[in-house]
Specification:
This protein has a six-stranded mixed β-sheet with strand order 4-3-2-1-5-6, with helices on both faces. It starts with 12 loop residues before the first strand and ends in an 11-residue tail after the last helix. Helix 4 (about 70-80) packs parallel to helix 6. It is built from ten helices and six strands. It is of the alpha/beta class. About 40% of the residues are buried. The longest helix has 15 residues, at about 240-255. The model is unreliable at about 210-220 and about 255-264 (pLDDT under 50).
Length: about 260
């Protein structure tokens, strides 16, 4: 549900989450770039350029998608055949619905792709998930089902293309005056475009081990390995305690064993 409806009923938590590589095990945009666009080598070079500050995420993402001539419906079909859901997300989502915890997807991806993947991987209930993201639109004089017929329409004018912090900020400002019983703002993410969003929330859950990382994979949503968000929302632990545990694990191991981040 959109702002401010998500605050109705004063939920214990509001859970914001990235989509690609966080709810899914693979990044859908990387997949179509690697397999339908200019390939993995060029994509990795652009990612390095972004991390080194030589290009913005908006610039490299535009170049990635411009290399794909496949019609949008065919791109979606390819992704439906190859992108898989984090197996623990559906359990988390059902728990959140049962406890009136809003789950809001903040994505640098595109709405038709995200909606199609959620519908297949989560089911009809996924239609209730609020999604704030970029759009896929026809190129002038073309249709999205034409070759080279579509392009991205960014959510805003930032260097991210979609500055996720701007979507969270109204929630942050609204809860500041609610006192100790205000909703806790949580965020799960795994990428460069998530950094600004994390600063607007109380706690970041960082998904470890995706892609080429040498650290073993660990799900943000795994009830056994990382159910801190549930514990926070049920009042069984606090943001400070979870952040403290995460900081101690990072100090000891170089990473948080439960995929925890820190407070902003």
């Amino acid at each position: 549900m959109p702002f401010p409806d998500a605050l109705k009923g004063n939920p214990k938590c509001i859970f914001f989450t990235d989509f690609d590589g966080t709810i899914t095990l693979q990044d859908s945009n990387d997949y179509i770039t690697d397999n339908l666009g200019f390939g993995q080598a060029r994509r990795k070079q652009l990612n390095a350029d972004c991390l080194d500050g030589r290009a913005t995420f908006r610039e490299i993402f535009t170049e990635m998608l411009a290399s794909i001539s496949t019609p949008l419906p065919a791109c979606i079909d390819t992704l439906l055949a190859h992108i898989t859901l984090d197996p623990h997300f559906t359990t988390f989502f059902h728990w959140a619905r049962a406890h009136d915890i809003p789950v809001i997807v903040l994505s640098s991806g595109m709405r038709p792709i995200i909606r199609a993947l959620l519908a297949k991987l989560v089911g009809d209930e996924a239609s209730t998930i609020e999604i704030i993201c970029n759009e896929a639109v026809p190129r002038p004089g073309k249709r999205v089902d034409d070759p080279s017929g579509w392009t991205i329409q960014f959510h805003d004018d930032s260097g991210f293309g979609h500055d996720k912090s701007l979507a969270i900020r109204p929630y942050r400002e609204a809860v500041q005056g609610m006192g100790e019983d205000r909703p806790v703002l949580l965020f799960a993410g795994d990428g460069v475009s998530d950094l600004s969003a994390a600063r607007e929330t109380d706690l970041l859950f960082a998904k470890r081990g995706r892609g080429e990382s040498a650290v073993s994979f660990l799900s943000v949503w795994d009830m056994g390995a990382n159910w801190d968000s549930v514990q926070i929302c049920e009042g069984k632990t606090s943001v400070k305690e979870v952040a403290k545990e995460g900081a101690e694990e990072v100090k000891e191991n170089g990473h948080a064993d439960k995929g925890k981040g820190t407070m902003k």
